[in-house]
Design brief:
Layout lengths: L11 H16 L4 H8 L3 H9 L6 H10 L21 H11 L2 H9 L1
Helix pairs in contact: 1-3, 1-5, 1-6, 2-3
């Protein structure tokens, strides 16, 4: 029987969606506070979404997509799955780290 992951480990999809949220927010030049206020939540909640520490609900993801002028599917675009259906959890972390750099943000903005 497969071993369960510890509770404090973020799900790879949550990491990926959070990274996409961060990219889109930064591309539009919005702060976490601005996005949080527009969504009616705290900026700490945005931080948790972006880190994948908290799972974003479907309704909040829909609101975020509208605010960030993107389709909901944007948050899942490029989500790679292996033949076993497991998601590369290291990819989301590497992507988030890259986008945090000035070069990553510039490249994201060009897209």
């Amino acid at each position: 029987m497969p071993e369960k992951a510890p509770v404090d480990v973020a799900h790879p999809v949550d990491l990926y969606v959070g990274a996409r949220l961060r990219i889109r927010r930064k591309v539009l030049g919005l702060s976490q506070t601005q996005v949080a206020e527009a969504l009616g939540i705290t900026f700490q909640q945005i931080q948790k979404y972006e880190r994948g520490a908290n799972r974003i609900s479907a309704s909040k993801l829909y609101e975020a997509a509208r605010l960030l002028q993107s389709p909901v599917s944007y948050f899942f675009d490029g989500l790679d799955e292996t033949a076993h259906g497991d998601i590369d959890d290291g990819f989301a972390q590497r992507m988030t780290q890259f986008v945090a750099t000035p070069e990553g943000l510039e490249l994201a903005g060009l897209f």
